[in-house]
TrEMBL record:
Naturally occurring in which organism (per UniProt): Kangsaoukella pontilimi
Entry keyword Membrane: yes
Cited Pfam families: DctM (PF06808)
PANTHER family (UniProt xref): C4-DICARBOXYLATE TRAP TRANSPORTER LARGE PERMEASE PROTEIN DCTM, SIALIC ACID TRAP TRANSPORTER PERMEASE PROTEIN SIAT-RELATED
Quaternary structure note: The complex comprises the extracytoplasmic solute receptor protein and the two transmembrane proteins.
Designated name of the protein: TRAP transporter large permease protein
Amino acid sequence: MHVAVLSAVALVVLLIGAPIFLAIMAGTIITFEAFAPPIPSMVIPQRMVDGVNKFSLLAIPLFIFAADVIARGQIGARLVRLADAYVGHITGGLAIATVIACAMFGAMSGIGPAAVVSIGPLVFPALVKQGYSRGFAVGLIVTSSTLAMLIPPGVAMILYALQTNSSIGAMFLAGLMAGSVFTVVLCAYAYGYARMNGVARGAKLGWGQRWEATKTAIWALGLPVFVLGGIYGGAFTPTEAAAFACVYAIIVECVIYRSMSLKEVFFAANQSAGTISVLLILIAAGTALTYYLTLSQVPQQVTKLLSGASTIEVLLIINVVFLIAGMFVDPNSAIIVLTPLIYQAALAAGIDPIHLGAVIVANVALGMVSPPFGLNLFIGITTFKVTYREVVTAVLPFIGLMLLVLLIITYIPAVVLWLPGLM
């Protein structure tokens, strides 16, 4: 009864146009006052403060700031040039270079939409000029940008790890494996598309030109090397790595590449502050919701409801729930609200928590390009000046590819657990 009331209140608040964190809080507070045991109401704000009072949580805002700095600078352009220098001459080379550049950009930023804005305007005209259709170019860029959610340091991976008290390092390794599978599938599709449609190949560059492209990108490539190498080498924690990423990105863009001024860094910080504020409020609201659901034993009820289901069936239910959620809410909200509900049931079904995290993040990444409200769809509309219908039509084949990758990740756990298992 109380869950139905909570959901109804949240839905009504959403329908009147309120932010999702207000919808969560309204439903939580009303049902808490109406159905909870006699506990002081002050416990709700206390739980909200506890939810954001975590040292490890600092990694998220710091990586967001680093991503905004990178998105405003020249790192994206240098990555595109580097990837094109090495694979641009093969069939589908420019499209493959786009995928690789988005993957490398994701390894620096952890934020998907940043790749659309940073890399998209660089490669979109070149793709169309070389013979790729506008729809293919838009779909490829918008979809490839979601690699940033899987490849470390994906913010969604960090958020899941904090929600479940899982190892952030292990989640990063699982995400790296999942992102690698997705990258290979996208590159294979790009090759097949170019071959079937007779797309012209780019000129083959000499090793001197390739070395020049490598030199111009070497500082950009150093960011994921130092960040991930520092984490797994034991030099610093993920939170410290995030702080290092901010300093490194600012030094590279402002001092080495000289593509940004300190004033532009301030503007990037201002933009990041808005994003971070919304996310922290959402985490606080989600913590209050999780507390109330735990108090009401909702996760235990979900576990009991799914007790007779097999592991395959539980994974299927989880996929369906997160796929539907991803069509309507942002990835962070889906992870914060739904993970506490299904986590205990997944563990009871014998699902590894690291495997579960990879499955959930892959689902919300797919939600970024799924109609009707996938965030990347609207960023693509703004960036490439296309209509909503055009961008939805463009991503449909790529949604099919993402579903294939999701099936691989879901039902072949060794794909994502192999590398974490070596830790």
